[in-house]
Amino acid sequence: MQRIAVEDRRTALLAAALHVIGREGMGAASTRTIAAEAGMPTASFHYVFASYDAMVEQLVATVLDAQAEAVSTSVEAADTLRGFVEGALQGWLDRASAEPDAEVALHEIVAWSRSSPGRRHLAEVVYARYTAAVEAFMQAAEARFGVRWRIPAGDVARFVLVLTDGVAARWLVDRDVAAARTALALGADALLALAQDVRP
Amino acid sequence: MQRIAVEDRRTALLAAALHVIGREGMGAASTRTIAAEAGMPTASFHYVFASYDAMVEQLVATVLDAQAEAVSTSVEAADTLRGFVEGALQGWLDRASAEPDAEVALHEIVAWSRSSPGRRHLAEVVYARYTAAVEAFMQAAEARFGVRWRIPAGDVARFVLVLTDGVAARWLVDRDVAAARTALALGADALLALAQDVRP
DNA sequence: GTCCGAGTTGGACGACCGTCCAACTCGGAC
DNA sequence: GTCCGAGTTGGACGGTCGTCCAACTCGGAC
Known about the structure:
homodimer, mainly alpha, Tetracycline Repressor, domain 2, two-stranded antiparallel ribbon, 76% helix, DNA-binding
């Protein structure tokens, strides 16, 4: 095969891994399958990545970065607290259904990493980044709409993740976007009921 | 090994599978690992079960049966709608934290079955049974407290599963029962806000 | 034109997988 | 006491896995 910059190989392999995991799950995403999907010999995998686990770690970071940016653009135009909350939740869903491979991969990798002590930190990192992202949204909501919460901010953030995780779990099985949208709307109502002192 | 009734072997292997999946995840739950956990030679596995997939299918049925029964006993004493809703949700959490292997196994198996077309029906069966269980609870609530809902019953049932799935996803990673309890209490409030016409 | 080192990769390593079968054991009917 | 069929299981089958190395290629410095 012709010579390719290592960064380009890395990018191609990460994209291939995303497709394979999205299509056939973590169980089928072997080094051989991923390299074949990228049109490379198997040995190229370990020329680019130190190990399989290292590739997964990079994949998680890449997917989380792209997701955080996509969702944050969906609340830029919000001019009410309701618009902001609904925009964030529906923006997350729009992103998930637009890039299902990324959403599937995230859940596959969390489930995969949960059971092995040496990989458990990966699942915790995912939730730490989710929590940080939600808290950044909450601070933006406070700055823009003066919202305060009736309960500790940490409990609100956790409840947001309960909503997205719960909707995702079901959507992963039935891929029913309309039903997911309805459930998220109920979630938005529940979140707004926790707000007080909204600046007019 | 001494002669053992096939049903006893089946029971022992299912219990062993539950332990292995709960401790090390689906990826480590091979026929060899499970048989060893049950103190049997590997070949016993295929003397009892037609295939690995058939064992998983039986395991799901067993776990769902036990779970449904455990939760239903936790609302028997409820004498208000709030007590009923909170009792059901907290009863589910009590069951999950009392038998973590069963809860872990259910999520591991759903994730495992999602990606393979030939196994996808298993994930759908799990949600069909969850939905049926929740709808049975809702009918019991209507009979006992005369409750009606502001939105379609199907949307309420789906929202209940969003709550349990979302709480479970996080609990599987951090095992924080207190935080799960708080999140479920918020979920109960959200559900009660969807109720109307409660008989006094 | 020569050479070097980075890029590339076929193929092997040991391990584990689900499944299966031939050979063995042994309780109980006769 | 004999025998049979159900119960039991060691070991093998072909497959996949992550990883690695020796051997090859080739762009670019000299």
